[in-house]
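= Paired protein data =
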Amino acid sequence: MTRQELRLRIADCGLRILAAMLLFTFTLLLAMNVDAQEPVQAANPQSAIRNLQSDKRVGVDGGKRATMTLRDVMLMALENNRDIEVERFNVQMNEFDVRSAEGVYDPSLSSSLFYDRRNTPIANPLAGGANGGLLTDNVSFATTLTQRMTQQGGLFQGTFDNKRDTTQNLFNQLNPQYTSNLTFSFTQPIFRNRTIDPQRRQIRIAKKRLDISDSQFRQRAIEIIAQVQRAYWDLVFARRDREIKSESVDLARTQLEHNQRLVDAGTLAPADIISARVELERRNDESEAALDAIQRAENALKALILQPSNAEMWATEVVPVEKPQLDSNAGMPLEDASRLAMQNRPEMEQFRFRGEINKIDAEFFKDQARPQVDFFASYGTVGLAGTERTGTNFFTESSLLTTTRINQLIGFVNGLPNAPSPLIPIIPPGQQTPIPDFLLGGYGQSLGNLFKNDFRAWRVGVNINLPLYNRTAKANLGRALAEGKQIDVQRERLEQAIQVEVRNALQAVETAKRRVEAATNSRVNAELQYQSEQRKFDAGQSTNFFVLDRQNAMSAARGRELRALTDYTKAVAELQRALSVTLSSNNVEVR
């Protein structure tokens, strides 16, 4: 034994002797007072031995109990937690945003059908009207199919146009007249909007935002599961701490009963009953405070795993079945932990997606700064048919009589004797250019002429737009580049924060492990110390004061061991959260 240990041993003995002397003096004085009141105490010597502990809690039915493992509460949290549900709806909304953005490539079919009747006053006889007016009836139907190309930004359009025109115009030889047009056109950007355009930019950004919302959902699930783990172990601690406090109360009650028997036997001073009674009441107070801690810990856990409307479960007592214990595989080297955190943390993934969105913006604005050159081509065919007009106009009517008289004269000349070679009669007006047969008919004949493709038109060309300054696109590009640098700086700041979290989490696990070992040794020695003190007391070599003191030391050591184990399990849960392996470590999947 070293000198320092010897001095400490002598000092401890001196303190014990001094405490015994003080206790003896206090007991002697108190005994004198107690002797004066001896008849009152003798009437009910067991009045101080009562159980003040109660397990009754507000809003909890003691007859309803639900035993739960840590995995049970995790799954309930994923199913019922409102914060996770909010993030799940965010993912769904972003999925709809992607579908909405992709809808720009859905084929679009637009149609129009109308009837138009006009009575137009005219003052020009060549307009073909009669009595100073021109009446027209038009029925028109048109449909257009538009389709954007998913690649290279091309635009295709097909238009089918039909008309039925009825008019009083005397110069129109077909009345009614059916006109059909079929036109196809294609526009292809060559510079601007070829590799990326507003539509494709929006789709790509919507997909990245969906990825971000998925990552945020997983991050929120990890955070909630980590909170559930802490709340679960807090409840385990609170319930076990109540048990330790109850055991301490039982020890105090047993000691009080033991002292009472010794007093009745006349081998112990009555003052020892009072000190034991005081200690019993103090421990009862601690036990009731521990019950309040159970209520608070259970409510905190229920708030994470239950819906507000589940009144039955809120009134049920939650009984955790798992116990905190050491895990030899919890720690890992700092380098491996840092690398794993950088790979798994959703925050890092979100910064990567933000950087990709920024690159999409930069690519788009760079493209918008280029000149716009679009190639276009179109092809169309026309069909026409109608009913031949039977009436005549004033031109044909005015020349018909002259033509008839000339033909009569030609016939007379051709009938004279010795006439020269026969003259050819003049063709009457309206018969010089007869309407071709393929133009005579109804709407079906017009469609037939359309698909014969005899009358067609096509066009090929280039549209050019050269912006002189284009400051808007250049400014947007500059802003996107600056935002990209800002994202890089923010990501570096996050990496530093993650490094700090990982270091702190690893240190907390190692420290908690050593605390558990120290607390376990302390608890074992405290139990041995109490047992030794109790044997001394039974042999008359110690006092009630030291027995109660050893009981308090033993209860405190058990509490410290429980707290160390609980802190260790919570530290492991925090390390899992820092490494973002909470879900995989607990075999939990989120959808």
Summary: Residues 292 and 412 are 136 Å apart (CA to CA). The two ends are 65 Å apart (CA to CA). Residues 198-265 form the longest helix (68 residues).
